[in-house]
Amino acid sequence: MDETDKKLIACLRHNARASLSELSLTLGLSRTTIRTRMERLERSGVILGYSVVLHEDTMVSPVRGLTFLRIEGRGTDRVLRKLTGLPAVQAVHSTNGAWDLIVTLGTETLEELDLVLAEIRRFEHVANTETNLMLAAKRATGRDRPGGRAGR
After folding, report:
1. Gap between the Cα atoms of 127 and 121, Å rounded
2. Which of 68, 58, 55, 67 is CA-nearest to residue 108?
3. How remote is the C-alpha of 47 from its chain's centroid?
4. 72 and 37 belong to one structural domain
5. Fewest beta carbons within 10 Å, which of 78, 82, 101, 118?
6. Global pTM?
7. Shared domain check, 120 and 88
């Protein structure tokens, strides 16, 4: 993957629905070159697919947070099994540094989030937690990203 592929992927991250013409103008390449590169990235498994982020996605779990967990001893696998059984858990990532796991949580209310956090804190091997609430999403769209154009 070269720099042009990285720029193409960055453009698609901002707007996966961008037309070949839009991508061509943005990257200064022909539509054929853009299409060929996209097909190659798809075939090689770099691009697995395209998705849509819906407003409803945030409304299903309007209260969202990132919880950082420090695990004692060798209890990570047990904690992971317990986390995956909680409906509020949307994703779990291992990490390095002061924290061992980062958990994305989503609930209907702050009270539900508080209950989930209390449950996680009671898990055996969870030594410490820190939670940050996620507020407004700050994501550039096709209209407001640098160099983007309004309309189609």
Report:
1. 8
2. 58
3. 15
4. no
5. 118
6. 0.60
7. yes
